[in-house]
Every structure is written in C-alpha cells, then in structure tokens.
Amino acid sequence: MKQLLVILWLFLVFVNIASSQSSGKLHQKAILADTHNDVLSSSVLEGKDISHRLTTGHSDLDRWKEGGVDVQFFSVWTDKTPRNKEGFFKDANQEIDSLDAIVNRNPQRIILAKDYKEVKEGIRGKKLVALIGVEGGHMIEDDLHKLEELYKRGMRYMTLTWNNSTSWASSAMDETASSKSPLPGETLRDSLKKKGLTAFGKQVVQKMNELGVIVDLSHTGEQTFYDAIATVTKPVLLSHSSVWNICPVFRNVKDDQIRAVAKNGGVICINFYSGFISKEYDQRSTYLNGPGGRIIQDSLFAVSHDSATMKAQWTKYLNTELNKVRPTLAQLADHIDYIVKLVGDDYVGIGSDYDGVGSLPVGLEDVTTYPKITGELVRRGYSKKSIKKILGGNVMRVMKANFK
Hints:
Radius of gyration: 22 Å
Order of helices and strands: HEHHEHEHEHEHHEHEHEHHHHHEHH
Distance between the termini: 66 Å
Largest sheet: 6 strands, parallel
Number of domains: 2
Number of helices: 17
Structural class: alpha/beta
CATH architecture of the largest domain: Alpha-Beta Barrel
CATH class of the largest domain: Alpha Beta
Helix content: 40-55%
C-alpha cells in the first residue's frame, strides 16, 4: 500500500512539473501585452532608475524581462490638481519626457512604438515595446490641439476620464456619487453638470479615432461609456477594469457593458487591484478606511495617549487585517473566466495596474509573476490559442485596428 502511494505521489509530481514546463514554454512564446502600468508617476518621477532591478515598487526593465512582458502601455497620469503650475498638459509632457529618457538610455532593451509596424519590430527584436496611455482627458485641457500634440509625442490611448470628470465627460466616480441621495448637509459634486459625453466630448472621441488613438473607457461613468460606444468607429479598450458581477465596485463593468464591448470588437483588460477582484477585500477595506477604522484608532489612542504610537499600531493592524482577505490568483482568473463565458475569449486581456495599486492578489506581487496566470489558465483547461489571445493577442488586434 505504501509503495502504491509513493508511486502515485511521484506520478503527481511528474505531472505538475510537466504542466509547469509546458505553461512556461507557452508563456514565453505568447505575446504578453499589459495595458496599464503607473511606474512613471509612482517611481520614475521620484528619481528611481527602472533601468536596473529595484527593491521597491512592482516594475523595472529586469523584472519585465523575467515576467515575459513584450508590450507595456505606460500610464501618463496626474491627479485632479496638477503638479506643475502650468497645468495638466505640462504634467503629461513631463511624464512622457521621463519615458523618453529611459528609452534613450536603454536602446537595446526598450523601444517607444508609435505605430503597429514598430510594435511588431520591437517584439521581433526581443525588446520591451513601450506605448503611451494618457490616463485622463483632463490632460488635454479642453483643447483638440493639445490632443494632437500628445498624439505626436506617442500617446496611443487616452482614458476619457480619470476619477474626476471633465467638462465634456463624466467619470464613474462622479456618476456613482450623483446617483446617490446626499446625506444631510451634503450636496452632489458641483463638477458633474451632465452625465455622459457633451457635443465636444463626441468631437474628442471622433478626433481620437481619426488620429489612431485608442478610446479607453476604464474610469468612465456608464453614460459616458455608452455615449462613447455609440460614437466610436473603431474597437475600444478598457485598459484596467474588472467584472462588476463578481466585485460590485464603481470601477468595474457590468454584463451589458461587457456585451457592448464585445459587439464593438474591443477588449476589457483585467485590473489586478485586490479591491476590484474581491468583494470581501473591498468591503473590509471600505470599513477599515472609514468609520470602523476611526473607532479603532480612537481606541488605540485612548490606551497609548501618543499619536505616533497609535499610528504605528494602526498601520500594523490595518495591513494585517487586509492581508487576511487578499484575493488569490484563482479569484483573479475568475474574472477572466467570467468574460470568456459571457462573450468569448476574444474580448479579455491583461491590465494589471502595477505600481498604481496598494494591494495585489497573493502570488502576483510584481511583474515577474505573469507566468503564474498562464499556468492557472492551463490548469483550467484553456487552449493554447485562447491563452495567447488573453495574454496579448486580443490587445494586438485592437492596436492594429486603431493605429495608422
């Protein structure tokens, strides 16, 4: 009996090793395209050199190589208040300058692509293909000429809104806030005058299609989403959004939106943030970062009578509690599964949001871990063809349809 168990154990070990080797080869052969990474604003602008392996953050050139990444959209992001006194457009150009500097220092390792031909050439040359995604229409400052200037600098997708609405498009955050009854003493956001795209907003979308800039509908409110879908003439992208029916938060997309993207021929790229993957994590985080957390902090201060001690204890407690509910790799793959089962394997991709989020699924701590996703998809019975689509083929199709 013991001999039989040993043989069975050895067989299972052999099967696991063979499966791991098989998924590893598949991962290396596939084109991996990640549509959202915030390393420019989170690390590069702080003076960190991603040319070399860092001990902080999620990304650098060494780790992208280790993770098998072929194509990376670099997010150009600025908050609702600009960093520079000149405004949002200056912020965007500053970040693009920082990416240009990285490319110029590492010409053998990374290329900034501006058309589909250059994307393919970079992949063939085994370089990291960098593309620019501007995260938020506020950076064009209501000026189509500035949209054209960012295009000339390499912008190849623009997220119509970030969390803040523009004068011409309403964000998911603002549309969600405006749909709720205000509490006593509160008013609805003054910035949200009208849901959806204005006439100028539709001009922006049409200009993006004309130039060859992908319309990115992550962060947009539902009305903006549907107005844009009705306006575009090319496939759209959701660069970093997950599934609302699994994790019902304002940044995730509902079934009818998923169907609309499929009908359009676009792609929804799954966001890795724990709070967009796991409902349990979102609920716990919301509670601890809200009234529940304030009660606990008050209790800690009542014992220590020292603000510094209380903050240290609170940070340790918060991290411990949130780590208990971090989602798994399997839960992230459930979002991929959901879209595939709803509309097929042509409409889902990867949009990690690395270096832009504070929590990630267990085992996906940085960009070296992408092969684990391939391994999970193999384990679930996905074909090689489907896996290649999900890892990058679908995004490549959308780029080819949009770029000149």
